[in-house]
Design a protein that fits this description.
single chain; mainly alpha; disordered N terminus
Length: 63
């Protein structure tokens, strides 16, 4: 049973990683849109990217 439990946890972990990657990829067009509208320096884009990463991580752990 220990091996089956480990396999189940591993599959669940892989599914969570894939779902987080999907969230990050889905947020990329939003980042590009915000960057085009704001037309500011790269620093602002990095801050927005960090905020989105934090939000995605929160969604990842709450899911």
């Amino acid at each position: 049973m220990g091996i089956l439990d480990a396999r189940g946890d591993g599959a669940f972990f892989i599914i969570k990683i894939i779902s987080e990657l999907v969230l990050v990829v889905a947020s990329l067009p939003i980042l590009i849109f915000i960057k085009r509208i704001s037309n500011q320096t790269l620093g602002a884009t990095k801050v927005i990217l960090r905020i989105l990463i934090v939000i995605c991580d929160l969604l990842f752990w709450l899911w």
